[in-house]
Amino acid sequence: MSRRRLLALVPLALVLLAGCGHAPMPEKAVEQKASEELAKQIGLAPVVDCPEDLVSRSGATMSCTLSDPNGSEQKYSMTVRVVSLENGVAKLKFAIDDESG
Fold it and tell me: Going by fewer Cβ within 10 Å, which terminus of the chain is more open, N or C?
């Protein structure tokens, strides 16, 4: 996956993720949503690795790592942000950070 292709994704789509009240959003659910949204944008679903569950609070952020599912060693940092939380549904924004790892 080329850096140019990934950087074209900044800023990514806003995504809705259902949660239960203010319980944290499970790490695996956030990873799956991020991968699905990137696949819609670039036609390739990257491997997304987040370190933990995401706090269900407007403005909360978490840094995750993206890697190429085709085996490239290149990794990219992505920030996940909770834009809003209403009636147990979180609106998330995924953005590729400027620097690759």
Answer: C
- Give counts: helices (H), strands (E), the chain: 2, 5
Neighbours of 7 (CB within 10 A): 13
- The tokens 């994704």 sit on which residue? 9
64 within 8 A of 34, measured Cβ to Cβ: yes
pTM above 0.85, yes or no: no
36-69: pLDDT as tens digits: 988 888 888 999 999 999 998 899 999 999 998 8
